[in-house]
Amino acid sequence: RVLFRSRMTRLVRLEMGIDSYVELVPPHTLPRTSSGKLSRSKARETFMQKHNLAEVAAIAEGVQLRQQASA
Question: What is the pLDDT of residue 67?
Answer without folding.
Answer: 52
